[in-house]
Amino acid sequence: MKKVLIGLFLLIILVNSSNTQGKLATPKVNLEDLSESSLTLSYPEVEGEDNLHTLNRIDLVDPHISYGKDVRGVYVSAWAASNRRRITTILDEVEESNLNAIVIDLKDTDGIITFKEQEGRSGTLIRDFKDIVDQAHRRGIYVIARLAVFNDNIFAENNPDHALEYLSAKDNETIIRSEKWTSPYSKEVWDYNLEIAKRAADLGVDEIKFDYIRFPTLARNSTLIIKEEGYSKSEIIIEFLKYANQELEEYNVIKSADVFGLTTTIPGDLNIGQDITKLAHYVDYLSPMIYPSHYDSGMYGVNDPDANPYPIIYRSLRDAKRKLGDDSYKLRPWLQNFSLRHRYGEEEVLDQIRAVEDQGINGWLLWNPRSVYDFSFFKEEGESVEWSLQGSELFLKR
Fold it and tell me: Which of 318, 230, 220, 321 is nearest to 271 (CA)?
């Protein structure tokens, strides 16, 4: 059975009693009254029947992982979350494993908003988003909401004035508007995405994860040049994050950003606006996508990166820590849980996790585009349930 650390949300409860005159009463816990399903609190300062209060396990939640620390999660696509049986199974499996978080889509790269009605589309993909969040919280699962920001086919096509603009490399004058990417220079695009984030925050998610917070990659011999408007690519990405922090401040949600894996090692912003030495100042966590299958032969001296995940993950994070210095605690990488050229099973997945831990980093996320995982990798046999009577912050920020 999974080891469960149950945090007590109300260690201090306001008791409406004439004996306390509405003051805060401190409960006492009799360790003999602890069980897997409930515990009983007693209030010595209160006289009569009001001095006992029983809490069932569903009333108790895991500690909030200190606002995002030590997150061990899996990606859940909107299609997986929209299937009631499948999302329930995923939550069951996460609860009964050493995992403690899920990453769920708010808006994908097609521009489909997953959890609320959208102009031009009938119905909602995830009809019971709030219920999923509530179910996760009752199980002590941390909920991260992933928002694909600037790669948005629907918004770019419907709002060409706010689409990313290219210049023709032939004459450096002809403007070509993207049908897939919105403009990071457009405040309307910023507001559109942040309204989605605010709605998700209202529904109770713990963290907003900005994905595709960048410019598109162009080939070296591309006939297109991205048109810059007053700010460099990396500068305008920072301006967006500054604005996002202001707009989301009252919602008190954690903010994180996904970045290319090579940002950990290569200097600068990769010509896509992602410089982690700058980004780290404006987000709570950074998630480099360090999938071994995405590295070329010879990277970090490894001939076949896909078949040798440990050195790829270890050396990538080593470089990231050197870049970030005191901000290294913000690293929470994406790891590979899918197969391309090399089949990824338990050994490959756990080797990546071991590399993360060997670099002194506690949190990580697993990516599988189909949200298919073997949860047996993350279960330990013979463990018993434990109660941890520490104050939970899980709902304090709501």
Answer: 220
pLDDT tens digits for range 170-205: 888 889 999 999 999 999 999 999 999 999 999 999
Length of the chain (residues): 398
DSSP run (H or E) holding 316: helix 309-324
Give the whole-angstrom CA distance, residue 296 versus residue 305. Answer: 7
Report whether pLDDT(339) > 70. Answer: yes
Residue 266 tokens, joined: 């290569």
Separation of alpha carbons 288 and 60, rounded Å = 33
Select from 212, 231, 226, 213 the least CA-distant residue to 176: 226
Range picked from 11-25, 105-119, 384-398 for highest mean pLDDT: 105-119
Contact 367, 68 (CB under 8 A): no
Q: Is residue 197 in a domain? A: yes
| Residue 220: per-residue pLDDT | 82
Which residues constitute the domain of residue 263? 68-380
* CA nearest neighbour of 210 among 109, 294, 336, 110: 109
pLDDT computed for residue 170 by the predictor? 86
Q: Element (H or E) spanning 166, and its range?
A: strand 163-168
CB crowding 36-68: b at 16 or more within 10 Å, else e: eeebbbebebbeeeebebebebeebbbbbbebb
Show the tokens assigned to 229: 């408007």
pTM of the model as a whole:
0.82
Domains held by the chain: number: 1
In eight-state DSSP terms, residue 361 is -
Tell me how far apart the alpha carbons of residues 90 and 373 are, in angstroms, rounded to a whole number: 9
- Domain at 367, CATH number: 3.20.20.80
366: helix, coil or strand?
strand
Tell me how crowded residue 221 is: count the other CB atoms within 10 A of its CB: 6
Please check whether residue 294 lies inside any domain of the structure.
yes
d(CA 115, CA 105): 9
Does residue 131 form part of some domain?
yes
Q: Is 32 inside a domain boundary?
A: no
Calpha distance 303→323 (Å, rounded): 25
pLDDT at 104 over 90: yes
